[in-house]
Amino acid sequence: MRRSSATRGKRADGRPTGIAVIAVEGFKSLKERQSIDIRPLTLLAGANSSGKSSIMQPLLLLKQTLEAPYDPGALLLDGPNIRFTSTKQILSRSGRQQGKGFGLWLLMHESGHGLGFSFATKPGGGFDIKHMLLGTGQYPEAFVLFPEMTHEQVIGIIPPEWKSVHSSLEESPLGPGFNWTVVRDRCFLSLALTHPEMKTLKISLDQFIPPGMLPSRTLSPCIEGFIHLPGLRGNPERTYKTSAVAKNFPGTFENYVASVIHDWQENEPKKMDLLAKGLEKLELTWKVQAKQLDDTRVELLVGRLPHSRPGGARDLVSIADVGFGVSQTLPVLVALLVAQPGQIVYLEQPEIHLHPKAQCGLARVLAEAAERGVVTVVETHSALLLRKIQTLVAQGELDPGLVKLHWFTRRTQDGATQVYSGDLDSAGRFGDWPEDFDEVALEADRQYLDAVEARGIG
Amino acid sequence: MRPVRTSRRIVVDASVARAAGEHNHPTSKACRDFLIEVLGICHKVVMSPPIRNEWKKHCSSFSHKWLTSMTARKKVANIAEERDMSLDCSGLSSRRQHQVLDKDVPLLEAALATDKIVVSLDDEARKLFVRVTRANPGLNPVMWLNPLAQSDQVVEWLKQGAKTRSDWQLGGVKE
Q: Which of A67, A114, A445, B162 could tie A250 with a disulfide, CB 3.0–4.6 Å?
């Protein structure tokens, strides 16, 4: 029996987890503020360069900034998830005029925490945090931190519990004389207490406030837990480097696939079974095997045929010797199976290299992940994938409350992105869109039939 | 946002669905143009059980895709079958004329239950319905369009909100 959408994507204590809403402004084609709701199956569709990736890229910037082995400043522009070499490549343009910053707002499920980031270019290059908006959900007003804030300005805005941290230090043997200071911690602004006579002393607010009270502390694990699988998932290799297997996967996920499979072989046979079934459902292969060659390399072997046959257990070949469909789809299936409920998996065009029949099968795999509570954000150009998801809803096999569709278009006049969002009803219908794949397909059919008619061939 | 337009519920005969997938110039092209325009504009297609059955029998691949897309966009107005329509057809002379009329009565029933618009290639049925309007004045307000005969006007008419045109109404046609 299917669980209701109300019970999925929630923690053990019953509260929903993770990011509920993403809003972006001033980033590439997202000139004006556009926002998307995040559900267990969030679909981003629209034409090329319509801004689908752009709405997720600020999160990827946060991820690679938080995961960098050194402090790269407020944002690491050129990292493993997304590569920029200049702020100019990021900022929206209006004619010849370039923006000077961009904004990112995230609303969290936890206690209604909200975070707003305003990043501005800095003279030496790159971005700095101009200000950060925090909403704890427990206070009616959100408040804004900016780097140059004075002690008095901080006192004027922060919640009473935070003020008490200052009072308790003032009464300690170290006090009085402590001042609130705004400090940058990677891509976040936070608060610390400093003392003018003790230059090296900087007491972070984090040491006093429970993690659940601080929006940035709620967001960090969510961003670091982000599983990112880009559209270009590398060429199939004869061997893959070994990697750690944990809950988080820094960088892009394709680098972990071979080691995750090897780990499952050793420790989680059920996951291996689910993986094999998923691959077979897509008619790609019926078996996958990871063979550790030495301490640094793993080889991936796959069944040569899509379905098992008597004596076929030894009919395995290197993943480099089968079609691209297997090597490009295997990371998608592994990512969806490895993700915990509430963890976000961002898939860029999971359908690439897949036959239409397999694209339909992929819809079921995505639906199953959503039912398990994994939060999948899918950027797609596949009409079939969307139609199959609608069909699963209409057949009663996928709860429509788990699905959110966002359609991206670009305004003709200035190229600015506009997002249209919709829900599926119980019949899998999403309502009227600005333009959809069907319209394009019908137009192509019309042109073909008109052309045949024009040649006088009946 | 798209400009807000008036949404009208239009009954589309299976003859249009069939022709849209054929290579019968210029009829097929006119039908395709009409269907694509309806998809792009906010108008809806009306489906009752007998109309849907006719569509299933005669639907081309093109119009099947069109209807799927209309369904996905919540642009299909499903209505129950109306069975209480009785027409005074004493003005008709032959058995065949009665058969033609009977076949298309579900179109009229669906149109009268919605926005009183029928789109069909069947001019013979239209002429017969016009002939019986004197004895059945309830049919007068129904607009009956042929996407081929009115191909130069129908697209613009759809774009402008598919407003009532007395010269296309059964009661306004001069035979």
A: A67
